[in-house]
Amino acid sequence: MRKAVFLDRDGVINRALVSDGKPYPPANLSSMEILPGVDLATQALHDAGWLLIVVTNQPDVARGTTTRAAVEAINHYLQKTLPIDEFRTCYHDSDDGCNCRKPLPGLLVTAAKTHNIDLTASYMVGDRWRDIEAGKCAGCKTIFIDYGYAEKQPTIVNLRVQSLLEAAHIILGIRI
Prior knowledge:
- This protein is α/β, with parallel strands linked by helices.
- Helix content is 32%, strand content 19%.
- It contains 6 helices and 8 strands.
- The chain has helices spanning 38-47, 60-63, 68-81, 106-115, 129-138, 164-172; strands spanning 4-7, 17-19, 22-24, 51-57, 86-90, 123-126, 141-145, 159-161.
- The strands form 2 sheets. Strands 5-4-1-6-7-8 form a 6-stranded parallel β-sheet, sandwiched between helices. A two-stranded antiparallel sheet has the order 2-3.
- α1 (38-47) packs parallel to α6 (164-172).
């Protein structure tokens, strides 16, 4: 079986736009910025044999405030720029009743089936409680990038860090 690092997108790979203490995705490719150290972190994880799978909620598509094409343009750019193996995107809103919207583990579980991933040997890295809950429900170890957002915080997490680069060092057993 393979092992993976599941990554949230906004706030983990690219900068989330914070307003009133809450994070929001960039509206389009021109407002998207890859966070410092993400290139080094993803390359190191990739080189060590980890599958890198982005699992992202993008409910603004269902809400009509952004287009699927805008989300896919960002995803495509990130996949071209970074060694990411796959993007799995939930375009639903909270009330749509899907199983792919985090905090439910659907995106992780279907990726595990497709790629023969051992979820218990894998990690979920996120910056919001929904990411951490999805990882826990899937059986992954969880790493929370804590930006101190003014919203619900995860109650139980395996590790708290300040960046994806710090998370990668921990996963790879490298001292900072």
